[in-house]
Write a structure and sequence with these properties.
alpha+beta, Rossmann fold, Coagulation Factor XIII, Chain A, domain 1, 7-stranded mixed sheet, 6-stranded mixed sheet, about 25% helix, elongated
């Protein structure tokens, strides 16, 4: 490795076995073959095995922070465990310069019957510190953890938040050259989370490198110089943090869209029908007026509904609703309340209704449509669809709130 690169991962793959018994059998067999100098064939899948990670490659330079993000089960924690030496890769190579400190799992490496103070000594020695070095740091570790008199209580009585406080304090105060952190900043109160963020900012200046796994995109955006995205055990992006977050949000939107529509076709969340009108299809259209399931932030939103009308109906109007993933109503519009011409009646036949919203200003995410046809005089409902069709709005920034707005900030001092 060049002098400024402290972590280098080259085409690394890791496999696991679904059966514990089979895994133990393969392990014993591989150890025996290795002892006899016979190749273990660990780079090939055997019966019951699967690849948890495949061909992962990246480099991390000194003083930089790498974020690893991805859906659940994508291999993030497995990658971190390989960097920490808990797992060995089945293919590829990992090179690391410097002492590694890790906070990978709540309570990992702690003995439940020993006190917090005793566990500090055990963890410190595991990390390669002498007793004298631990003595020099123990008051700083205890002060940072801030768990009061519980420091001298057996840790089996600790809450999950206390575990994280102590584990994080040990990991960051032993001054590791490379720090590995797996989704721990979401535990604990706001004061402790802020203390952790300040400490991480300090470590970014002093440590050789930090590898940070998290689902909190705000933390990733603020802490990481570059980001690796994993999906189904494969590396789909490595590079600029802002670009990575946009790509990850789009990936998650597509996954949620697929999950919502998988196997459901046109199944409705709610459907009310008089039998006089039937819906044939609905959705959104792109700029060329072709059917699509995604548009970009800033694009106009064109919604269509295809109807089959069974008899002549007078005095009709339409209502359109758009809901976000939290089931919040973001847009609601009624046709006879607009300045556009009203709809006088339906005669028997097939119709396509278009509703064009020039600037919806909705944040990136997954949305659903609701639609209804009613009588403006009697208020009776002919057809109503609730959260009928799903679509995605993709964008280039972190989603906050419901709508995108431009805002001007100012500050006055009294």
């Amino acid at each position: 490795m060049s002098n400024d690169i402290v972590v280098k991962v080259e085409t690394v793959s890791k496999k696991f076995c679904r059966s514990l018994r089979q895994m133990m059998y393969y392990g014993i067999k591989d150890i025996a073959r290795g002892t006899l100098g016979i190749h273990s064939n660990s780079d090939r899948l055997r019966n019951g095995e699967f690849w948890a990670l495949t061909d992962i490659s990246f480099e991390l330079k000194q003083g930089k922070t790498l974020g690893i993000i991805g859906p659940n089960g994508s291999g993030k924690s497995t990658m971190l465990r390989m960097l920490n030496g808990i797992f060995m890769p089945d293919k590829g190579r990992i090179e690391i310069k410097g002492k590694v400190g890790a906070l990978i799992e709540i309570g990992a490496g702690f003995h439940p019957l020993l006190t917090g103070r005793e566990n500090i000594y055990i963890n410190g020695m595991i990390l390669g510190l002498t007793k004298k070095e631990i003595n020099d740091k123990i008051e700083e570790i205890i002060a940072f953890a801030d768990i009061g008199n519980f420091i001298d209580s057996p840790i089996k009585f600790y809450s999950s938040g206390m575990f994280v406080r102590l584990g994080f304090s040990i990991a960051v105060n032993v001054r590791p050259e490379i720090l590995l952190i797996d989704e721990v900043l979401s535990v604990g109160d706001l004061s402790f989370q802020n203390k952790c963020l300040r400490k991480l900012a300090e470590l970014r200046e002093k440590a050789n490198a930090v590898v940070f796994v998290s689902h909190n995109l705000e933390h990733v955006r603020n802490l990481c110089d570059k980001v690796l995205i994993l999906n189904n055990g494969k590396q789909i992006f490595s590079g600029n943090t802002d670009k990575a977050i946009v790509k990850y949000q789009h990936l998650m939107d597509q996954k949620r869209l697929e999950s919502l529509e998988n196997g459901r076709g046109f199944e409705l969340v709610g459907h009310i029908s008089s039998g006089d009108i039937f819906f044939a299809d609905s959705g959104i259209l792109d700029k060329s007026r072709n059917k699509t399931d995604e548009i970009s932030v800033g694009d106009e939103l064109v919604v269509f509904f295809e109807l089959e009308v069974k008899k002549d109906i007078k005095d009709i109007y339409f209502s359109l609703g758009i809901h976000n993933e939290r089931e919040e109503l973001c847009i609601w519009h009624i046709s006879n309340e607009s300045e556009s011409p009203g709809f006088s009646h339906f005669s028997k036949g097939i119709y396509r209704i278009l509703a064009r919203i020039e600037k919806p200003n909705l944040v990136p995410g997954v949305y659903t449509l609701s639609f209804a046809v009613r009588n403006s005089e009697t208020k009776e409902t002919y057809e109503r669809l609730i959260k009928y069709k799903k679509f995605v709005i993709k964008g280039n920034r972190i989603s906050r709130g419901i709508v995108n707005t431009n805002i001007e900030w100012s500050m006055l001092r009294n």
